[in-house]
User: What shape does this take?
Amino acid sequence: MQTEPLVVLLVEDDPGDALIATEALERVSRPHRVYAVGDGEEALAFLHRTGVHGDAPRPGLILLDLNMPRMDGREVLAQIKNDPALRSIPVVVFTTSAAENDVQASYLGHANAYVTKPMELAELEAVVSAIDTFYTTTARLPSG
Assistant: This one.
């Protein structure tokens, strides 16, 4: 069971979805530190600790949207899973797309899970809570 705060990197270009997911994670009983970035380029800067993210912590979990400006989630996933320093971080693709080709491509790109975002607020909060419960109480995450 997770005792230290789980550092979550939320990669989401929709400010409303980012707020809902962040608030849902903050409402669960386990402690979290949620960092939200708005696109793939900023996500990679966070992960590589460059620019304004020079002191960013290493996330224990990444929630990754697919369809974003500048650099989409598919490219971010590929870069994470091809980087020996980052590939052990679990990545949950968390997107509105239910397209089978996106699901297949994400798993072929070594996503740890693929979750389609529900449209209803209560369902979205429940799904975020379920992801959190799995990764903080059921699964064992790699350290450091």
Summary: The longest strand covers residues 6-11. DSSP finds five helices and five strands in the chain. The chain has one domain: 6-137. The domain at 6-137 is CATH 3.40.50.2300 (Rossmann fold).
